[in-house]
Design brief:
mainly beta, Metal Binding Protein, Guanine Nucleotide Exchange Factor, Chain A, about 5% helix
Length: about 140
């Protein structure tokens, strides 16, 4: 595996991925659209494979999936970095745009396609899932 690193906009929070992501998906849920003003490319990783340096702020709410989701962001610049779901603490979501080399990953699926706006550019070569897919094993 190529080591993947990333950081927030101001650099106060940095992170390292110690293993390959389990999944790379473009999410079109309304929450991701609010966070990114578009679909958001998210990496699905094991919690133990994510090493974070710096302080994080959190915001928790119930997602469309019904799960309680905590989103973590830099308290200085506001960059949204990570997410975690109460029912699956063994996994974390990493926003791919914060990688130092976001081209090092390629999404394989569009999720929450039912919520995508009519103008969304959905790659026809990627699998489409209308709502929340099952987590990778």
């Amino acid at each position: 595996m190529t080591e993947r690193t990333g950081r927030c906009l101001c650099g106060a929070v940095s992170f390292k991925l110690a293993a390959e992501p389990l999944a790379a998906r473009i999410c079109w849920c309304r929450d991701c659209q609010h966070l990114a003003a578009n679909g958001s490319v998210n990496l699905f990783v094991r919690t133990e494979d994510l090493v974070v340096s710096g302080s994080l702020s959190e915001y928790t709410k119930k997602a469309d999936s019904g799960d309680e989701v905590t989103r973590q962001f830099c308290p200085s610049c506001g960059s949204h970095l990570f997410g975690k779901v109460a029912t699956r603490p063994q996994f974390r979501v990493v926003r791919a745009g914060n990688l130092d080399d976001p081209s090092s990953i390629k999404p394989h699926m569009n999720i929450w396609v039912a919520s995508a706006p009519g103008w969304a550019c959905l790659d026809p070569t990627l699998e489409r899932v209308e709502h929340q897919p099952q987590p990778p094993k």
